[in-house]
Amino acid sequence: MNLHKLYCCILLTLITFSSNAFADIKQSKYAAKQTISIKKWEVVDISFKAKSKSPFKVDFIADFISPSGKKQKAAGFYNDNNQWLIRFSGAETGKWTYSTSSSLKALNGKKGSLIIAQETAEASHGGIVIPENDPQHFYYEDGTPYFLMAFECDWLYALDYHNEDGLPKTNHLLNLLNDNGLNQVVMNVFSYDVNWKWGKDPLLKQHPEHEFGAPQDIFPFKGNNENPDYSALNIDFFKKLDRTIDLLNEKDIISHLMIYVWNKEVNWPDMNTEADNMYYDYIVKRYGAFPNIMWDVSKEALFYGRADDEYILERIQRLRKANYFNRLVTVHDYKFCQRNTEHVDYISRQDWTFSLYHNMINDLKTYSDKPIFNIEHGGYEESPYVVFSGSYISAEACLRRNYQCAFAGAYSTYYWQGTSWNALIWNPFEQDESFYKPKFEYFKHMTALFTAHDFSKYKPVVAENKAGYAMAHANEERYLFYVPKETYWYHTGYVFEDKKPVTYQWFNTYTGEYSDEVTITKKQHFISPWHGEADAVLIQHK
Description:
This protein is an alpha/beta fold. The chain has eleven helices and 26 strands. The chain has helices spanning 3-13, 27-30, 168-179, 202-206, 235-250, 274-287, 309-322, 334-339, 356-366, 395-407, 441-452; strands at 37-40, 44-49, 60-65, 71-78, 83-88, 94-102, 111-120, 128-129, 139-140, 149-152, 184-188, 221-223, 228-233, 254-261, 293-299, 329-330, 347-350, 372-376, 380-381, 411-416, 458-461, 469-473, 478-483, 502-508, 518-520, 536-541. The strands form five sheets. Strands 10, 11, 14, 15, 16, 17, 18, 19 and 20 form a nine-stranded parallel β-sheet that branches. The chain has a seven-stranded mixed β-sheet with strand order 1-7-6-3-4-5-2.
């Protein structure tokens, strides 16, 4: 059930949870409903009423106790119009109880209960975790391997902001991502505008509906970006953001949520001020219960001369104190991660270099207890608008760099210029033939490959003839070899030492097509059936 639909139900049934907070609802009318039931990992809002002159300074916490006695805290936050919410999700089935504590008397000492049913929320596998026995890979909370294949969309929050009835554009775009194996969105809480002048693109004048930069009536504080009022937060902004995060969660798409971004023209309050802390703490409280959250303190955190290590470290510590659901934390700055490895859960990288593969291999060796995520590899596939060109713009060159990351044991992101910044073409395949159509399907095939051949079970190995990249399965005699289309023949020597028959087939990275399996009994050179046409993966096993 949608979080907001669920909230409406709870609003009518929570009298048994907190009758003092619902003085306007008659207990007798709802007394038969003693508790509510939610699914595993479903997000629920528990609502209270209380007045406060300084609602963003109020401490409000709920202590939940699971059926087995496990304790779980959940933060409370102000939701406007004297309404307060405790937002919760969990996995242990059975009856949970809670009690609240607060610096505001009207919110203190409230008690209630809820039941988590055996049924799992649709498409949900829980939050993203890093297990101790496999610290360089991501998994879902239920133990399912998570092959992270991210998609950059900085302005996602704005796509349906002004639609009070729903999120049709957002839903359309997210369905495209789901259909094409893209299971994470790298996004900002708020972006205002870009500081490069791309908006003179003549095609954009014909399609102003794709321009989302410089919104005059969207801002996380009171006022607007030009004339901010830092005395209070704009709760309507966060209610709108709730819808987006919730829709991502329904589709089991992870929100890689960057709390700050320095180069998108946002008029932020000064660092370490009361307004800065109010904004930062509120986001952690409001979104921490969502299982599809992965925290990122700031995009390009130490670029642009604003923040330093001391500030970012303080932000991490501040986040950890309120990170009650233990969502993973990183900082989008490689040098910061290098200097402060123990403070991040995984290493964030931004590597545009020609030596990308070898750099990722070195990272895998250096940070043997953490996953490696190259959030930006310099490949920004072209779009109808020339928004921002990286070192590579062809879809095939960009795809190859994603495979270079994967064959080095790292995770990566897909950037399309039509959605990565303030140009947002949410329905590219509905546009006329003059529009460039992105190659989303390439990533459908990539995710399918590393699902069929579980990415978490493979480790990079050095290819003997240096013509491509190789991975070996940890427990089986099985190998994957990435073979660029320019490679004429490929020779492997791993699997013939005991002279047993070997089976091989090819995988086309552009189409997802597999060749027929062939069994051989002696060494030979391998020539891809798509030589000169498409990069391929050679799959061999005994």
